[in-house]
Amino acid sequence: MAYITLNTHKLKENYDYLDRLFKQHSIEWGIVVKMLCGNRKYLEKVLSLGIRQVCDSRISNLRIIKSIAPQIETVFIKPAAKRNAARVVQYADISFNTELETIRLLSKAAVNQNKKHRIVIMIELGELREGVLRDNFIEFYSNVFELPNIEVIGIGTNLTCMYGVLPNEDKLIQLCLYKQLVEAKFNKQIPYISGGASVTIPLILKGILPNGINHFRVGETLYLGTDVYYSQPYEHMHNDVFKLFAEIIELNEKPVVPTGELGHNLTGQTASFDEALTGKVSFRAIVDVGLLDVEDGHIYPVDSSMHIVGASSDMIVVDIGNNAQNLCVGDSIEFRLDYMGILRIMNSDYVDKQLEE
Asked: Which positions fall inside the Alanine racemase N-terminal domain (predicted)?
């Protein structure tokens, strides 16, 4: 059975580095744990790191987090579905919001549960995902401030996740100015400017992060040691906290080019091959993980002499050349994964999850 491992020692070192960095700049931060897909074993390790706040986009995951560590501050980081308002208030101490009608339902749920529900209002700064339009945000805040049992604790934005719009000094200064405008207009104090994510960390390192940005939500850089802004690893962080191991279930020397008339494969694509490879052979290892578990474009053999040549729903085929490693059926091939690769694997019930100390 294929399995993924989380190295707890490397995760702790990545966490300690980020925690020191944020403390040096008086920044509060929360760990985004949605990539763990509610896996209790992994969540227990993350929650033991010492973080005060965790963020997720699934209510069921927040429920698990609260069952493990009731004292932890939980943040629901996408606009809630209206039908889930009561559950958001039950399991999230804070939620990110963009729709007035939904906040009204959160207010009603908070009253019914005798709770004060805290919210961060997200502002649209160009990514065109979630966010209140800038022309409307003063009126939006005016309506929200009237709602009972709702406390506005922050203004925030999301960048990069959909279209790749990068954060820069100008955009984040705008966010700081909007916060100042709301405070002056309504005589309210808004503690958080949640303008930071993994992609914003390089602005800290360059010394160009606006002073007002005081809250970050970080997932990818913690788990992968990735400089998301420049799509490269940080040298001083571990890039292999997660590893995937898949067992070889068939190993044979086969032609490189298939024979017969080619039609569409199961993903709707038609393969093409260099005719110069006709007659060539190589060893091909079939491993016990497939497209049901992960897209083959998001995992990479650690051994650079190997490369993935195809995949179906339950199997991935790896070209291992002349098999200089003397691999056999039953051996495992180690893969590294990018963010989406880990996310998909973690959501698969067919891949075992293990800890590596």
From this structure: 7-225
